[in-house]
TrEMBL record:
Part of the ABC transporter FtsEX involved in cellular division. Important for assembly or stability of the septal ring. This is Cell division ATP-binding protein FtsE. SUPFAM superfamilies: P-loop containing nucleoside triphosphate hydrolases. It comes from Rhizobium aethiopicum. Gene3D superfamilies: P-loop containing nucleotide triphosphate hydrolases.
Length: 259
């Protein structure tokens, strides 16, 4: 067992280059938020969620995601992990309760401002959501391209990150040709390029073998050590056993937290 604030001394060791890249990515986002460091990044108060006229699937959730925190979100299939991540990503509105993101009540934020706020949250979807007509490289670079960044300013970083997640040979391949695990790694790399303050990952090790799972976990831990809050939704007990971290357990619509 290691503490979430420590680096895993394993085969997933980060190279000097990737370490530098992560440091640059996180420091950029940190300096942008220097002035907002006093409140938790995310605050939920008595939050409930139902889809349409269905039953309430999340009930009375009250918790904080503190800055620089690392937590696993777990619970049986259908417990609402993905739904909770969607609330955290602001792609769903709660049906009751208060959600404060970066100090702001999201019910008071105009819809037009949400995309800007959402950029501060990186997400790796359970179903990857890569664009099939773009290559692996283009998918990962997309967040920077849509912001109008010059390719010369990010190309080396994208290639380095892709190499580190084991996709160095797959940069020019389209997603339909990638395996599930390869798509997953591309989706993780894309979420990291967006320099998030909070990284949400939905079953990020669901399609990879144990050594790669450990490597990805190491990447999440390193990001966290550099200051990014991380929430990993997972069923993977072996993964959770590797790190002594906060556990958020969803069951029957309720959330229990073990710090
Ligand atoms: N768009 C939707 N419309 C209606 N019901 C939904 C929708 N998305 C999810 N649900 C329901 O909400 C509940 C929680 O689903 P969710 O996908 O959040 O669970 P999960 O914990 O992520 O499950 P898994 O471990 O299988 O990924 C389930 O009963 C599901 O059927
Ligand atoms: Mg899910």
């Amino acid at each position: 067992m290691v503490n979430a604030s420590q680096r895993l001394p394993s085969n997933g060791r980060l190279s000097g280059k990737i370490y530098r890249l992560l440091t640059v990515l996180v420091n950029k986002s940190r300096s942008e938020t220097k002035n907002r460091l006093s409140c938790p990044l995310i605050h939920f108060e008595n939050v409930g969620l139902r889809y349409g006229m269905g039953p309430e699937i999340l009930r009375d959730l009250t918790f904080d995601i503190p800055k620089k925190s690392f937590q696993f979100l777990t619970g049986p299939s259908g417990a609402g992990k993905t739904s909770l991540l969607r609330l955290l990503f602001m792609s769903l509105q709660p049906t009751r309760g208060l959600i404060r993101m970066f100090g702001r009540d999201i019910s008071e934020i105009p819809r037009s401002e949400l995309p800007l706020l959402r950029r501060r949250v990186g997400i790796v979807f359970q179903d990857f959501r890569l664009l099939d007509h773009l290559t692996t490289y283009e998918n990962v670079a997309l967040p920077l391209r849509v912001r109008g960044k010059e390719e010369s300013s990010y190309k080396t970083d994208v290639l380095e990150l892709l190499k580190w997640v084991g996709l160095g040979e797959r940069i020019n391949v389209l997603p339909p040709v990638l395996s599930g695990g390869e798509k997953q790694r591309a989706a993780i790399a894309r979420a990291l390029m967006d320099r998030p303050e909070v990284l949400l990952a939905d079953e990020p090790t669901g399609n990879v073998d144990p050594p790669m799972a450990r490597r990805l976990l190491n990447l999440f831990l390193e990001l966290n050590r550099l200051g990014t809050a991380v929430v990993i939704a997972t069923h993977d007990l072996a993964l959770m056993e590797q790190v002594e971290a906060r556990r958020m357990i969803l069951s029957g619509g309720h959330l229990d937290i073990y710090d």
